[in-house]
Specification:
The complex is a heterodimer of chains A (110) and B (123). Chain A is mostly beta strands and 110 residues long. Helix content of chain A is 0%, strand content 44%. Chain A contains no helices and 9 strands. Chain A is globular. Chain B has no helices and 12 strands. In chain B, the strands form 2 sheets. In chain B, strands 2, 4, 5, 6, 9, 10, 11 and 12 form an 8-stranded mixed sheet that branches. In chain B, strands 1-3-8-7 form a 4-stranded antiparallel sheet, with no helix packed on it. In chain B, strand 7 and strand 8 form a beta hairpin. The radius of gyration of chain B is 14 Å and the shape is globular. The N and C termini of chain B lie far apart (40 Å). Classes of the chains: A mainly beta (110), B mainly beta (123). Chains A and B meet through strand 3, strand 7 and strand 8 of A and strand 5 of B.
Chain lengths: 110, 123
Amino acid sequence: QSALTQPASVSGSPGQSITISCTGTSSDVGSFNRVSWYQKHPGKAPNLMIYEGTKRPSGVSNRFSGSKSGNTASLTISGLQAEDEADYYCCSYAGSATWIFGGGTKLTVL
Amino acid sequence: EVQLVESGGGVVRPGGSLRLTCAASGFTFDDYGMSWVRQVPGKGLEWVSGINWNGGSASYADSVKGRFTISRDNAKNSLYLQMNSLRAEDTALYYCASFPIVGPVWKYYFDYWGQGALVTVSS
């Protein structure tokens, strides 16, 4: 099973908004409302930012939001801050107790 | 404080075996399913294997099926990954991660992560 498709990189200036897309198929992203997003800083463990497509865990800034349309999920970060610079990964449940990750997107805050 | 601590990584020759352990603390271990996720240096995350709360059900990525075995010991709050017939492409940082199970319902996201154990397969 191929990885979910994410742009390799996105960038934005402080205060701006960016959106990262995550495209799968009708067998994963399109079938389940079970997309999650993870922030990963170099040398650190991944950190859950969005789950079940649109929900934020306690402690995650409301500048982070998620959405889904068809086979594509999206993560939007508003009011970009320097500390948002990191790699972001989407992940979808793919049925039969398996998961699939996206290839990752490197966010650069200019 | 929730902690997941991986151990058992190291350097192994192609065809060799290694067993990773993930020690959990700070949460009710058997309220959670567990998974292993790996990251090849410089590459993205790849889900490897998952197990339900009592070890009665396990799943694997096609890339490791038949070579890796996931297991858990709830009495020891520990998760394991037995890796056999290792290949160069298995070289990665291996993370253990938890996913909540609420009654009979799985929650399909990974809320706690360890810091990872590095496995290097090289001759």
